[in-house]
Amino acid sequence: MSTKLKEQIAANIETIKDEVEAMCKHADMPNPNPRLIAVSKIQPQERIIAALEAGQRIFGENRVQEAEERWGELKPNYEGIELHLIGSLQTNKAANAVALFDEIQTVDRIKLARALASEMEKQNRQLPIYVQVNTGKEEQKGGCMVEDLEALLAECKTLGLEIRGLMCIPPVGDDPSLHFALLRKLGRQHGIAKLSMGMSKDYALAASMGATDIRVGTSIFGERDYSSRA
Ligand SMILES: *Cc1c(COP(=O)(O)O)cnc(C)c1O
Fold this sequence. Notes:
Elements: H1 3-27, E1 35-39, H2 45-53, E2 58-61, H3 64-74, E3 82-85, H4 94-100, E4 103-107, H5 110-123, E5 128-132, H6 146-158, E6 162-167, H7 176-190, E7 194-196, H8 203-208, E8 213-216, H9 218-221
Parallel strand pairs: 1-2, 1-8, 2-3, 3-4, 4-5, 5-6, 6-7
Helix pairs in contact: 1-2, 4-5
The structure holds pyridoxal-5'-phosphate (PLP).
């Protein structure tokens, strides 16, 4: 890996943290330090290694198999890596997801909550979860509808899952602040502390609206080349 790449990625991470800090200060946020989840999906391995060398330890992936291939190799070589699943999960991949990830941010239906709870018990590995909310009511997108949230949360509690946060992905083209505000409101309503919201285009805004996790890919690593995906 080139020194230049490492310096570039370290600088990108620094810029994001500085911007977020400034934005939180300006907005007078009580929790001015959202976690930066570096979204590594599809990125070439050398960029991920550069981020690791720059000290980044929290990463997000959206496909189980891709994540297994990448992190199976890297995880043993670096202390303290934390992996978050931020993409939709099929119940038949629940076992693999529970084995690999440290947090699952995309629980969005009762069937999946049940599959995860059963796997966690089997593997004796309790992972915190986030419930993904489809704040934009988009057909093609994951996330539970706002009106189904209460029932899903209740089921997660019954199953003994540790509900740590809520997560959303605003629709492309919408003003993200409406979605961030809705997620924050739902968090308050249900007494859920963590809010995973904000990506490369809007992480500073999200931070100013109470994000506790921001999920940033492109602004750290550069554009993704989807044609490289198997
Ligand atoms: C890809 C992805 C991101 C990161 O997107 P960027 O715009 O590259 O920062 C964040 N969240 C989710 C759920 C994603 O799938």
